[in-house]
Amino acid sequence: MKKIMMANLKMNLNYDDMKNYKQVLESSGVEGLIICPSYLFLSDMKSDKYDLCSQNGYAIDKGAFTGEISFYQLSSLNIKYSLIGHSERRHVFKETDEDMNLKMQSCLKNNIIPVLCIGETKEERESNGTKEVLERQLNIALKDVSLTDIIIAYEPVWAIGTGLIPTMDEINDIHLHIKRVLKESLSINSKVLYGGSVNLSNISDITILGNVDGVLIGGASNDPNNLIAMYNKM
Ligand code: 13P
Q1: Is 35 near ligand 1, meaning CB less than 6 Å away?
Q2: pTM of whole model > 0.85?
Q3: Which residue of 19, 40, 153, 175 is surrounded by the most CB atoms within 10 Å?
């Protein structure tokens, strides 16, 4: 069975780019991808050839929160997945582990499958803090949340958009650790994706690893033809 491939388009493409993106994917014959466009394009990007994932969401259903978009609203468009706690949300927009917990609860309530992103900074890695940081992120985000359907994306902050990646042994070992923590402390079985500088040259080596259930791709997914080329190497 093919592993999971998610494309996080961040804030990179405009309306015309997205129209082309959809057309390329739909005519490619590739099915089962998960695409994360900007909120703005979610409706137009609906397709029976791939699934959609929001890049974020607000934990309160409705109210006076100008500029926010809630999981409640996303679920009214039947959006299947949402990223939660992407590194850019944590570091640029200062979202906390506690915010992630509220978002997880809201996803659960609104029938959206959360894709919880976790990962250590360069400093945390260099001080041997990686596993501890990941455990903290998981334990707080998932506290008192009884989710059965959830995906974890391990994205080392220092690997995002830098061209740097951990060694294959490190990736496999950290994914195993994440699965153990989920099972032993939280009784959750989850797929764990790797994200951070995945590209055409390294995707085969990463997706062949036994503990890697798929990939979350940023920059290399902006071109839909490159995404398809990567899919064909998984
Ligand atoms: P890059 O693939 O550009 O490193 O981005 C990874 C990412 O942040 C996906 O969510």
Answers
A1: no
A2: yes
A3: 153
